Structures are given as structure tokens and as C-alpha cells.
Amino acid sequence: MGAKDRHMRVYARELYQHLPYLRRYARALTGATEVGDDLVTRCVEVAILAPTHFGLSEGSRIPLYALLNLLFDDEGEGRPANSPHPIERALARLPEEDRRVYLLAALEGLTLGEIAQVMQIAPPVAAERLKRARDGVRGVLTQRVLVVEDNPILALEIGSVVAEMGHVVCGTAATRREALELAESAQPTLALLDVRLAGGDSGVDVARRLREEQRALRTIFVTAFDGDLEELGARHLGQVVRKPFTVEAIRSAISRAVFMPTPVALA
């Protein structure tokens, strides 16, 4: 076996070791599994023709990330496919270079210096873009929460958990009428509701109305009467946190709701 063949085998092994990382980044970059894998295939074909240029002789993935970006742009795409997942939707709203910086940092764990190399920018510029991207994602994922609870102490406790998580309580209501009026004016993105409300009102009825008017709004029932949900055929409307609740139970339910894919049809 000649020296050239031996080198090519070494380069091929190096590429094989990089493949899981390249696929992960390419799938996030393109927003689609198949498109990302096709992009990696093109990347490998190019890299194997000029292995030293693309870092294979040094064991570095940095030039390969840059090559993925270049190929994606050359294909005339340059933006991810639409996604129902909240973080991906939040990232898609960012300027494209900020999105890529965020992916390289959060997904690939690259340092600012490495990100700067991939993006061909100065490290301070990479730091600025990463901060802007993180702020942008945080802003999109911050929820406007409507608390529908007729016990003022419990409403206050739930609201405190919401605020501690970095979300915003856009209103509290004790009745169906109050809840629907607040929903119209405050435009919540998430609602936490008791099932049995003041004056004999039903939190299930409120949840149904809210979901009819705002399909993407998520609902969480915080109740001691989860059996009512079964009787009313409302289990599908949202998660259930049983009373007496814990702070951790509320936190977990909100986190699941925030990172749940957008509903594709009315519940």
C-alpha cells in the first residue's frame, strides 16, 4: 500500500469519527434530518478531496463546520426548514449568523475562539452575537401566563412560581368571565387553571374557549378534581397538576408546556 493510500485511510477514519458531530450540527442547521444528512454527505465528498485544507490532518472539526455552512449557503438555502419545536422556532427568528453562533456554542460546545474561526469573525463579534442570540431565544420562550384560580392565596403562590421561572403573569382570574376578558386583552400564551371556579364556573369550559380562540395556547389544570376532566372528556386539553401541589410539580408542568411542539390541530 502506497503512502497516499495510507493517508487516505487515515483521513477516512478521521472523517468517520467526526460524522456524529457533523450530522448533529447539519440537522440543526438545516432543520431537517434528511436534508442535514445530505449536506454531510456533500461535506465528506468535498473534504476527502482536500483533507489537509479541511483539518483532517490535524484532527480538527472546525474547518468542517465552516464547510457545512458554506455548502448550505451555496445550495441557495441558507435558512432552516419550518419546525414545530419551540427552541427551533425561536432560533429561526434570529439573524442567520446569530443562529449559527448559538448552535455552535449550545449544541456543539465550541469556544468563542473556535466559533470565530468557523464563522470567520473576530472573537468579540462572536461573543456579541452569542449574547444577542441567547437574549433572543430567552425572549421568545418567555411565556405570558394567565392564572385562573379562585383561591387568592393559591393564585399568588402559582404566580410566584411563574415569575421565579422568568415568565410573566399577565393576569389572574377567579371566574369564567374574568378569565375570558383577561385572555382577550392580555393575550396569554399559557394558562394554569383550576377545574372548579367561583360561582360554579368550570375551568374546563374556560380552557376550551381559550384553545378555540388561540390554537397555540397551552393549558395546565391545577386541581384536586381531576376526575372531573375524565367525566367531561377533557383529559386531552392539558397536563394535570394535582392539589395540594408542590412548587416542583408546577415548575415541571410549565417546562413541559414551554418545550412542547406547537399543536397542529384544535384539541
Structure description:
This protein is an alpha/beta fold and 267 residues long. It has three domains: 1-78, Orthogonal Bundle (Rna Polymerase Sigma Factor, Chain: A); 82-141, Winged helix-like DNA-binding domain superfamily/Winged helix DNA-binding domain (Arc Repressor Mutant, subunit A); 143-258, Rossmann fold (3-Layer(aba) Sandwich). Helices cover 59% and strands 10% of the residues. It has twelve helices and five strands. The chain has helices at 3-30, 33-49, 62-74, 86-92, 96-107, 112-119, 123-141, 152-164, 176-186, 203-213, 226-231, 247-258, and strands at residues 144-148, 168-173, 190-193, 218-223, 238-242. Strands 2-1-3-4-5 form a five-stranded parallel β-sheet, with helices on both faces. α5 packs across α7 (123-141). The termini are far apart. The model has no long low-confidence stretch (mean pLDDT 87).
β-strand number: 5
The shape is elongated
Q: What integer value in Å does the Rg equal?
A: 24 Å
Strand line-up in the sheet with most strands: 2-1-3-4-5
Count of alpha and pi helical runs: 12
Which architecture of the largest domain would the CATH scheme give at its second level? 3-Layer(aba) Sandwich
| Relevant CATH superfamily of the largest domain | Response regulator
What is the residue-mean pLDDT, rounded to a whole number?
Answer: 87
Low-confidence segments, given as residue ranges, are: none
Overall number of structural domains: 3
Largest sheet: 5 strands, parallel
| Structural class assignment | alpha/beta
Q: Roughly how much helix do the residues carry, as a percent range? A: 55-70%
What is the N-to-C succession of helices and strands? HHHHHHHEHEHEHEHEH
CATH topology of the largest domain: the name is Rossmann fold
Distance between the termini: 65 Å
- CATH class value of the largest domain: Alpha Beta
Q: Approximately how much beta-strand content do the residues carry? A: 5-15%
